[in-house]
Design goal:
CATH superfamily: Glycoside hydrolase/deacetylase
Radius of gyration: 16 Å
Number of helices: 8
Shape: globular
CATH architecture: Alpha-Beta Barrel
Structural class: alpha/beta
């Protein structure tokens, strides 16, 4: 079963996390996790530029170190950069100290950012308390499921279009697993 929108009770339990940004302007927020990915990120940047759309890219430090020119290009085009940890660790299976160290390591290789998104969207309450001392934790209110190998382009569009509302934060993935399906869907 796919949970495209986080349940209401989860958002109420964790009100300090940013789930959406209502603004009365019919504006939505496109975000891409796992950046940068050579060639695919460039394709996304080209598409966004051709449509005059800005997005937020949550970058993995290991990839940022390997592809700094892509990070520079994101910024030069006016996109936001967010921290997505250095090695894409799952917080539920990593000690808090190691997890924070991984976030800080990513911080050291990215341009200054106050945004953080946890890989897999998972954090414990005590991790949230530590991380929010230095970052605004951005989650989402629509998960496109572009990482699911069984999903179709039609289903991704349905996941987004049937759930989008003013201020929605939509998460896509900028990685090899999602590349083919997103090129069909976006």
């Amino acid at each position: 079963m796919q949970i495209v929108k986080p349940p209401f009770f989860v958002r109420k339990i964790f009100p300090s996390l940013v789930w959406n940004l209502p603004n009365n302007k019919k504006k939505i927020y496109l975000t891409f996790d796992d950046s940068p990915t050579p060639n695919f990120t460039n394709w996304i940047l080209y598409l966004l530029s051709s449509l005059n759309i800005k997005a937020t890219f949550f970058c993995v430090g290991e990839s940022a170190v390997k592809h700094p020119k892509i990070i520079t290009e994101m910024i030069s085009q006016g996109h936001e950069i967010g921290n997505h940890s250095y090695s894409h660790k799952n917080a539920w299976f990593t000690s808090t100290n190691k997890y924070i160290t991984d976030i800080e390591k990513c911080k050291s290789v990215l341009p200054k950012t106050s945004l953080f998104r946890p890989p897999y969207g998972k954090l414990y309450p005590w991790q949230i308390r530590k991380i929010k001392q230095h970052y605004k934790i951005i989650i989402w209110d629509i998960l496109a499921y572009d990482f699911d190998k069984k999903i179709t382009s039609k289903k991704i569009k349905s996941n987004v279009l049937n759930n989008v509302e003013d201020g929605s934060i939509i998460v896509f993935h900028d990685n090899k697993k999602s590349e083919k399906i997103l090129k069909e869907s976006l």
